[in-house]
Each structure stands twice: as C-alpha cells, then as structure tokens.
Design brief:
Oligomer: single chain
Bound molecules: zinc ion
Radius of gyration: 22 Å
Shape: globular
Number of strands: 17
Strand content: 15-25%
CATH topology of the largest domain: UDP-N-acetylmuramoyl-L-alanine:D-glutamate ligase
Helix content: 25-40%
Number of helices: 15
Structural class: alpha/beta
CATH architecture of the largest domain: 3-Layer(aba) Sandwich
Strand order of the largest sheet: 2-3-1-4-5-6-9-10-11
CATH class of the largest domain: Alpha Beta
Distance between the termini: 28 Å
Largest sheet: 9 strands, mixed
Length: 459
C-alpha cells in the first residue's frame, strides 16, 4: 500500500475506534465514511492489494445468505476472507471492511462483499472485482430505490463502463438479470427441476416482459416470483442454457433441503439447513460464484452445506421450551416463498406476522396484498399480528378468509411474542414472519429472554 493510502487507512481506523468508544452502534461503517471523505482512492489501493481478488454479490433477496455461503467456500479453499457485516452493504461498509482488514497473507486474501443494489455500481468502480454474482431484482422498498427498472439500467451502464469486466455469474431464471449477460461471457446458474414449478406467475411477479422487444414472456416453468424457464414468443430470446443447474431441489420442508446440482465439474449434492426453494437458489448462486473464483465444485458444495442460517433468516431458536423459527419476509416474493416453505410441513401452524413501515422496511405496506397467504390460512390454528401496521395485516387476513377466532391483533411486539408463544401447544413451533425492522425488534425481545445471542458472530 502506498504511504498516502496507508495514512488515510490509519486515520479511518482511529475514527472507527473513537466511534465504538462513544458507543455509537459498533462503528461498523464509520471508518469507511471517514476514509471515503479523506481519500476515496485509498479504497481502490487497499482492494487491489488483495492477492485473491474480490467478488461482489447483489440481489434484492438472498444476498446475505449467499454471501455467507460463498464465504464458507472461499475459506474452505484456503483463502483469508475480508467481508462486510450484513447490513453494512453500501460503499462505506465495504470501505470499512477493507480498512479494518489486516490480512496475515495479503497475497492470498480475498474480498467478499454483499452490495446493496443501488450501491453496487459505486462499489464495483472502487473494488475492481474479479467476479460478480447477480441473483434477482424484485420489487422492494420502492421509496428508497425507485423502480427496479432503474436499477437494471444502472447495472447495465456499470457493465459498459471502461475497465476490465469481472467474471459475470448471473441468474438465468430472472429475465432482467439475464439481459445483463447479452453478448457477454457468463457463468449462468438456475433451476431445472420441473417438480418444484408452480402453475403460473403470482400476482407479485415483477419482471415479465421481454427485455429485447417488450412482448409479455411465456414461461415453461415458474419457480417463484418472476423467476423461471422463460422465453419470448415474439423475438425468440429465451433463458440462457445453465452452467450450474439445480436438477433436483430436494426440499425437506422447514428443516432444509438436499439439492442435486449439475456443474461443469460434474454433479454435487448439498445438504442445506436453511429451508425453501429460494435458499436452494441462493446455494446455487454461491456454488457458481465459488466456481468463478476457481474453487472446485466438491470443495464448495461441502463448505456451503456447513454454513448456518444468517441472522433472522430461517434462524431456529428455543424460547422457554417452545421452538421458534424466524423467517424474514420483507417483500411479496420473499413472503410468498416463506408461505410455500411453511406449507411443506403438514399439520397445524402457529404464526406471528410482524409489519413495520419504517424506512428500512419500505413506508408503503400495500405489498402485503400481493402475498398469496390464502393457501396457508386454513392450516393455521393461531395467527398473531403485530408491529406498527398490525391492523393492516389483520385486515389482509380477514379478507383472506381467516376465522376471526384464530386472529390476535397485538401491536406491541413484546406482548405479541409472549402471547403467540403461549398459543403454541407442547411440541409445536412458532413461525415468525417479520419485516426487516420488526425482525430486529423481535430479536431484541428474544435476546432479552435469553433465547438468542445479541450479535451475529461471523463463523
Ligand atoms: Zn422478445
């Protein structure tokens, strides 16, 4: 590192320590903010020192889980991984991770950064990644990001900017992501298991027109949301052939999945403790990312299988003897996938749904009307709704035909959690579906009750 970059990094680290000493939220992004202010080029310099190069992961849904899985694969391959904390996924968070890193062997160290969709172009311009994993674009937090169309255009412009193009690892199943690979060499990942297809596009589907000619797409199979085996009846553009293909999703209900995945290195089987088809796709994305970084498929598959669930994402806990699973649901696509995962388990369900409308959740909560809750409602014995918009949820469930005797409206999250747990019979499980800030509220209650640890410790 040159002297200027090194001096800037030292000042930025000191700012991070000062912030922590003042008790300001762990100081996660503070050193990055300081570094970007005093010497933005220092980020480039530090990133360029990493002998293993860097890989970026972005998507609306699943980027935290996929980044964790990919981190497992990189470590199993012997790399020292420099990574950003979940949630610190703007350029400042990436800069802070780079500033804080003191790799023992810089020649083999590797950067792995989860990027907010809107922040990705800025991160890519500074970090010069070797590879980039782009997974999906769903409607999410509209008031923060603008339309997903705008994000897709900014990503396209990012790939046209001068400089070396990273290895592109793209979701073939998402038409908006696939369009980014047009005319470029890519590693395509996706799903090829018709047994898990749903009949049709759900109401929540976001991106169903041909990117080339605007004609509505035809789907041979829909996996979830607008992801599927798509083609355009007008211009003939279609889902690219898969390099990394899930040929058997191996769903096991709420306990996990055992997907069989075909890769250019042969077939591998994974054993995931995170449930649902969306996590099977997250694992396929991580596996494809690992291949792009030169890791063997069998090494990556074994490592990905060892990665536990991320904070609040299919996290299993026990509270006063009652099992509880936290399933983050922050937009229609994620919530639909959670509903589908819960339906894999026969028997009665006890659910707690928590809806806030703070900025990190998206101020507009109308998306709850796009979630297909109806198949679940006849199978629930108790539904507790909570959060700042508990009454909106109550209305949604009443419209969905839920028996009012089964519905409990308790806006205070602490009281709602206690009541929902009390409603679960012995041996049962409480399934908690919170939005982003509601997840943090409920997790804080669980920490207070001794059921969860306060901070996620990177494993
Ligand atoms: Zn077309």
């Amino acid at each position: 590192m040159n002297i200027v970059a090194s001096g800037s990094a030292a000042i930025a680290r000191a700012a991070g320590r000062a912030s922590r000493a003042m008790g300001r939220g762990g100081g996660t992004s503070v050193p990055g903010v300081v570094l970007l202010r005093i010497n933005p080029r220092a980020v480039d310099t530090i990133a360029d020192r990493l002998g293993g190069g860097s890989i970026l992961v972005s998507a609306t849904n699943g980027k935290t889980t996929t980044t964790r899985m990919l981190g497992g694969a990189l470590r199993a391959d012997g790399a020292e991984v420099i990574t950003n904390a979940a949630g610190a996924n703007l350029l400042s968070g990436v800069a802070a991770a780079l500033v804080g890193a003191r790799p023992a062997r810089p020649d083999t160290a590797c950067g792995l950064f989860e990027c907010d969709e809107a922040a990705l172009p800025a991160v890519m311009a500074r970090v010069h990644p070797r590879a980039i994993v782009l997974m999906n674009l769903f409607r999410d937090q509209l008031d923060r990001h603008g339309e997903l169309e705008a994000i897709a255009e900014r990503w396209q412009a990012m790939l046209l900017a001068p400089g070396a193009l990273p290895r592109l690892v793209l979701a073939a199943d998402d038409p908006a992501i696939a369009a980014l690979g047009d005319g470029r060499e890519c590693l395509w990942f996706g799903l090829d298991d018709p047994a898990v297809a749903t009949g049709a596009l759900p109401h929540a589907a976001d991106s169903t027109r041909c990117r080339a000619c605007g004609t509505p797409l035809t789907y041979d199979h829909v996996w979830f949301g607008h992801l599927g085996d798509w083609r355009c009846p007008a211009c003939g553009s279609s889902r690219p052939p898969l390099d990394v293909a899930v040929i058997d999703a191996g769903l096991r209900g709420a306990t996990g999945s055992d997907p069989l995945i075909r890769t250019p290195d042969g077939e591998v089987i994974l054993h995931l403790t995170v449930p649902g088809l969306h996590n099977v796709l997250n694992a396929a994305a991580a596996l494809a990312g690992a291949l792009a970084m030169g890791i063997r498929a069998d090494v990556a598959a074994a490592a990905i299988s060892q990665v536990p669930a991320a904070f609040g994402r299919a996290e299993h806990l026990v509270v006063d003897g009652t099992d509880l699973v936290l399933l983050l649901a922050k937009n229609p696509a994620g919530a639909n996938e959670n509903v589908r995962t819960l339906l894999l388990d026969p028997g009665d369900h006890h659910i707690l749904v928590a809806l806030n409308d703070r900025i990190a959740d998206g101020r507009d909560v109308s998306w709850i009307w796009d979630v297909d809750w109806e198949p679940l409602l006849p199978r629930v014995s108790s539904v507790t709704v909570t959060g700042e918009r508990a009454h909106d949820l109550a209305l949604r469930f009443r419209y969905g035909g839920l028996d009012p005797d089964h519905l409990h409206v308790i806006p205070d999250h602490r009281a709602a959690l206690a009541s929902a747990i009390a409603a679960v019979p012995p041996g049962g499980c409480l399934e908690v579906l919170p939005t982003y800030t509601a997840m943090h509220d409920i997790r804080a209650d669980l920490v207070a009750r001794g059921a969860a640890s306060e901070f996620w410790v990177e494993g």
